[in-house]
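Quick one:
INPUT:
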């Protein structure tokens, strides 16, 4: 049945998760995702037994409440989703608007899951008042309830009893990290580099982020960072300083769906950075050679 993925989420690392797992050392006690989103890497790591424990965090509180339900009350959330999915028939457009209003009033996790399953590009968008304002993609009805129930149940089985959930700023999470942990960082998408305000990574301060990476290095923490990349001639992501001493890998992430829609056939490449301590740990466990040589790699700098 493959690796489950209950939360549709723009920017999910679902397709790259099994490549990213190659860089998680075999002795990893705990995998930490400070920017969890749909937690594709943690789910894949649990599926392949790559870590014993997990810490998932995201600044988005309703998302983490949804995670809590998926892990601890899987039947409940699956039934909630099924109810909404069945009620929408024949009135999909208006029903989406109704659920969105109700979500903005109550922040209920079943409403949030339904919105993610039905909205444009599964992309979370909020207005200045903090209300969810993404439109429906009226070609999408959302996963059928039986499929959603199966993804939820299998995810709960993988993460139950092993997972701690937080909903705070990533820096607070990283204060609790220790040396047998591995951190997988997937900060918000930065868009293309042209014309953007380089001080921010979609809400994160670039300088603060770099300082955080420096202190992880100083603490000897092993981390994997998804950061920049390119699609055709478009590059995204402000370069990271060389002084961080990171090993850069470039992964072929497949055809860009946006470019395919526009009739162009363009491949997206995503960079993955490995911290100095992670390289040392992979080397010590003889995993380094195997993981580097098995990568569908474009370049390792
Ligand atoms: C690119 S997405 C992560 C996607 C994830 N790897 C997956 O597989 O779904 C980035 C996430 O960071 C979260 N985020 C943004 N700013 C944050 C912050 N300051 N602290 C923690 N999480 C934050 C967003 O809510 C978003 O879910």
């Amino acid at each position: 049945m493959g690796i489950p993925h209950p939360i549709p989420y723009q920017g999910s690392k679902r397709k790259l998760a099994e490549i990213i797992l190659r860089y998680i050392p075999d002795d990893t006690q705990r995998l930490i995702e400070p920017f969890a989103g749909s937690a594709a890497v943690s789910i894949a790591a649990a599926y392949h037994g790559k870590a014993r424990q997990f810490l998932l965090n995201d600044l988005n509180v309703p998302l983490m409440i949804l995670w809590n339900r998926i892990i601890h009350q899987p039947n409940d959330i699956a039934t909630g989703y099924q109810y909404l999915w069945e009620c929408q028939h024949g009135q999909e457009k208006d029903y989406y608007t109704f659920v969105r209003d109700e979500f903005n009033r109550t922040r209920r996790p079943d409403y949030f899951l339904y919105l993610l399953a039905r909205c444009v590009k599964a992309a979370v968008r909020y207005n200045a008042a903090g209300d969810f304002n993404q439109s429906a993609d009226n070609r999408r009805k959302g996963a059928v309830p039986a499929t959603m129930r199966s993804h939820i149940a299998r995810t709960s089985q993988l993460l139950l009893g092993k997972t701690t959930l937080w909903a705070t700023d990533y820096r607070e999470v990283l204060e609790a990290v220790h040396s047998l942990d591995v951190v997988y960082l997937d900060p918000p998408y930065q868009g293309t580099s042209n014309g953007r305000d380089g001080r921010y990574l979609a809400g994160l301060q670039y300088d603060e982020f770099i300082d955080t990476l420096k202190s992880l290095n100083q603490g000897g923490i092993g981390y994997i960072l998804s950061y920049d990349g390119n699609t055709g001639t478009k590059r995204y992501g402000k370069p990271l300083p060389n002084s961080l001493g990171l090993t850069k890998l470039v992964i072929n992430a497949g055809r860009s769906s946006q470019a395919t829609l526009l009739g162009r056939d363009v491949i997206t490449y995503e960079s993955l950075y490995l911290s100095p301590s992670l390289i040392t740990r992979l080397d010590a466990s003889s995993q380094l050679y195997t993981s580097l040589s098995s990568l569908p790699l474009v370049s390792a700098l």
